[in-house]
Design a protein that fits this description.
Strand content: 15-25%
Strand order of the largest sheet: 5-2-3-6-7
Mean pLDDT: 81
Shape: globular
Helix content: 10-25%
Low-confidence stretches: 130-135
Oligomer: single chain
Order of helices and strands: HEEEEEHEEH
Number of helices: 3
Length: 135
């Protein structure tokens, strides 16, 4: 039943600079118990103690992470922290885009250290995020 819909091209789910199958997306949630996307448990805005504008919800992954836009496939924290994964994405050099929990889209650099990346996924408010993360 879903086959005709899965073959539709939805421009919203595709970065304009990404090449490859137009029915896929590289926009993925980072699923981790400490993050907004914690698996089967819903996260309420009031549970994001370090602020919605400081917490990553969706990342733009590398083209090898592309999935059909309807497929509920995400990445885990270790994949997001691994060198070369979800970093130089979509043809963007020097980093990649992420969507914060407040809906803002920002560019994070490849040089951003794993500790800060992990802090940006966490919703518990125990981190301090440096301004050098953004362009």
């Amino acid at each position: 039943v879903n086959l005709p819909f899965s073959q539709m091209v939805v421009p919203t789910y595709k970065c304009p600079s990404t090449t490859g199958d137009p029915t896929t997306t590289t926009y993925l949630a980072v699923v981790d118990p400490s993050g907004i996307m914690s698996g089967s448990q819903a996260t309420l805005f009031r549970q994001v103690l370090d602020g919605l504008s400081n917490t990553i919800m969706i990342v733009e992954g590398d083209s090898d992470l592309a999935v059909p836009w309807m497929q509920p496939q995400d990445i885990n924290l270790s994949q997001f922290l691994s060198p070369g994964t979800a970093r130089d994405s979509g043809g963007h050099h020097g980093g990649g885009h992420v969507m914060m929990a407040d809906g803002a889209v920002v560019f994070i650099t490849d040089s951003l250290d794993p500790q800060t990346r992990q802090a940006m996924i966490s919703k518990d408010g125990k981190e301090v995020i440096g301004e050098e993360a953004f362009f």
